[in-house]
């Protein structure tokens, strides 16, 4: 069981592996636009830049960063849509 | 009979058609192979010139040439709108019902702009992604007597990534030259956490923005325009007042590609192998230019460097030989000039493995861009650019 399973389960998982910055962030932004308040969105990214870019965007956009979970070859970044 | 069908007569489609016709000249002359370009208008347009309609004295008529004149005599041209690609039948269907069979399909359908997808965009915002829009922006700039200028990007990806930054620099310089700078604020809004997607270019551009008093707003993804309050709002919750609003409109791939199941919704970009340029693992379907989903600039330069790879691979299949190793792998090479304003520019040259290291902005690279724009029709579509590329 991974850390994310223990924390909460995502409403939607965005597999952005293979996409380079700012691709994973843009995928998250699209999902946030399409989603509902309270949705939990997990972005799976193999781009190291996402570790910094996505949390910074989440902070600016006033959503909640649930966590950044490192895996072998990729990170799982989990966000709750707050507004 | 083998039939190489090329969809789109832009930079990529035209160049790849000419390169293939040269490589398989014997097979064409022997009646064993045909090469056909399908284009909706039959007119080739040099789109990088649009910015100079708004920001210079570019004559729009010189940006357009009949596609037929740019194609090798061995290449056929069909003018028509593509409505469907029937993979099972290896056919492309046009709006008038014409069906074109193919054995090799090269997709160079580019990208399209959708300003109408943001409410009030067409009434309130300017852009420079068509002749008409660029002319309208020029008129708005002529009438501008000071105030708040906001330049932003509605969504990514979009054509010619440096263009909005270039336009910001050029507007700021123009306002200074016209004595309007003291009465104006200039804002640049970036959808990501820095001025430009590529870090090294951001590091070059950010001090230039600061030096020129242009305010940078990061993580500004345009969400809505309020025409009554003259405000542009971001998804992130920021609002900016404007007197002159310039926004890069949303872009998508060709509708026919989405309708035919080749390119996924909502963007419509073709899943393309970054090295071979095959589409979705299909051995006889290829893509280049804006139509791909590659993490590269949507720019004519990208198509320019992709075309020789597809030409070599397709020619090798026709001639039943192995492709030459040196020419058949795309390395992600892109090269473009970048205007900084005040008659200065720089050069972005990069590939998958090597980010750009832009030289110090100087007059040389601005002149280089102007020279390239003027020389485009003589060198690029017919594949005569090798010498210039080697010198840069």
Quick rundown:
The complex is a heterodimer of chains A (83) and B (392). By secondary structure, chain A is α+β, with helices and mostly antiparallel strands.
Account of the protein in words:
The complex is a heterodimer of chains A (83) and B (392). By secondary structure, chain A is an alpha+beta fold. Chain A has one domain: Translation Initiation Factor IF3, CATH 3.30.110. Chain A contains three helices and four strands; from the N terminus they run αβαβαββ. Chain A has helices spanning 3-7, 23-34, 50-60, and strands at 12-15, 40-45, 64-71, 74-80. With 392 residues, chain B is of the alpha/beta class. Chain B folds into two domains: 2-110 and 254-330, 3-Layer(bba) Sandwich (FAD/NAD(P)-binding domain); 114-250, FAD/NAD(P)-binding domain, CATH 3.50.50.60. Helices cover 31% and strands 26% of the residues of chain B. Chain B contains twelve helices and 22 strands. Chain B has helices at 11-23, 25-29, 50-55, 67-70, 121-124, 131-143, 163-177, 199-211, 255-259, 300-318, 363-379, 386-391; strands spanning 2-7, 33-39, 43-45, 64-66, 75-79, 82-86, 91-94, 99-101, 104-107, 111-113, 125-126, 147-153, 184-189, 214-217, 222-226, 231-234, 239-241, 244-248, 251-253, 285-287, 334-341, 344-350. In chain B, the strands form seven sheets. In chain B, strands 5-2-1-9-20 form a five-stranded parallel β-sheet. A five-stranded parallel β-sheet of chain B has the order 11-18-12-13-14. In chain B, strands 6-7-8 form a three-stranded antiparallel β-sheet. The radius of gyration of chain B is 21 Å and the shape is globular. The relative contact order of chain B is 0.15. The mean pLDDT of chain B is 94. Chain A binds chain B through residues 19-23, 25-26, 29-30, 32-33, 52-53, 56-57, 60-62, 83, and chain B through 155-156, 191-193, 197, 218-219, 221, 235-237, 266, 295.
């Amino acid at each position: 069981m991974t850390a994310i399973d223990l924390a909460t389960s995502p409403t939607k998982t965005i597999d952005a592996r293979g996409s380079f910055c700012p691709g994973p962030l843009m995928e998250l932004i699209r999902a946030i636009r399409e989603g509902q308040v309270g949705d939990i969105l997990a972005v799976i990214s193999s781009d190291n830049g996402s570790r910094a870019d996505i949390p910074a965007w989440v902070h600016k956009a006033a959503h909640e960063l649930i966590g950044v979970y490192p895996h072998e070859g990729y990170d799982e970044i989990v966000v709750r849509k707050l507004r | 009979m083998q039939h190489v069908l090329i969809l789109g007569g832009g930079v990529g489609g035209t160049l790849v058609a000419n390169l293939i016709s040269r490589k398989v000249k014997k097979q064409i002359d022997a009646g064993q192979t045909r090469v056909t370009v399908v284009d909706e208008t039959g007119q080739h347009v040099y789109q990088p010139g649009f910015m100079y309609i708004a920001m210079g004295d570019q004559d729009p008529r010189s940006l357009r040439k009949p596609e037929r004149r740019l194609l090798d005599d061995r290449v056929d041209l069909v003018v028509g709108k593509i409505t469907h690609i029937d993979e099972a039948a290896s056919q492309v269907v046009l709006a008038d019902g014409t069906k074109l069979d193919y054995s090799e399909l090269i997709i160079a359908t580019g990208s399209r702009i959708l300003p109408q997808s943001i409410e009030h965009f067409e009434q309130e915002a300017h852009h420079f992604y068509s002749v008409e829009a660029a002319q309208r922006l020029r008129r708005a700039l002529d009438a501008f007597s000071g105030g708040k200028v906001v330049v932003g990007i509605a969504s990514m990806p979009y054509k010619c990534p440096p263009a909005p930054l270039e336009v910001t620099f050029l507007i700021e310089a123009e306002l200074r030259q016209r004595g309007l700078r003291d009465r104006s604020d200039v804002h640049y809004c970036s959808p990501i956490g820095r001025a430009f997607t590529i870090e090294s270019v951001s590091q070059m551009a950010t001090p230039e923005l600061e030096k020129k008093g242009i305010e940078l707003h990061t993580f500004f993804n345009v969400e809505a325009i309020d025409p009554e309050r003259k405000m542009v709002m971001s998804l992130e919750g920021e609002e900016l007042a404007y007197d002159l609003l310039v926004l890069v409109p949303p872009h998508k791939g060709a509708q026919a590609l989405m309708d035919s199941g080749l390119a996924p919704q909502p963007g419509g970009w073709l899943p393309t192998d970054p090295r071979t340029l095959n589409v979705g693992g299909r051995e006889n379907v290829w893509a280049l230019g804006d139509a791909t989903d590659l993490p590269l600039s949507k720019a004519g330069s990208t198509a320019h460097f992709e075309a020789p790879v597809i030409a070599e691979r397709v020619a090798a299949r026709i001639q039943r030989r192995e492709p030459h190793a040196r020419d058949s792998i795309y390395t992600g090479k892109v090269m473009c000039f970048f205007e900084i304003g005040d008659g200065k520019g720089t050069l972005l040259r990069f590939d998958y493995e090597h980010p750009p290291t832009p030289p110090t902005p100087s007059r040389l690279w601005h002149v280089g861009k102007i020279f390239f724009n003027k020389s485009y029709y003589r060198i690029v579509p017919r594949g005569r650019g090798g010498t210039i590329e080697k010198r840069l």
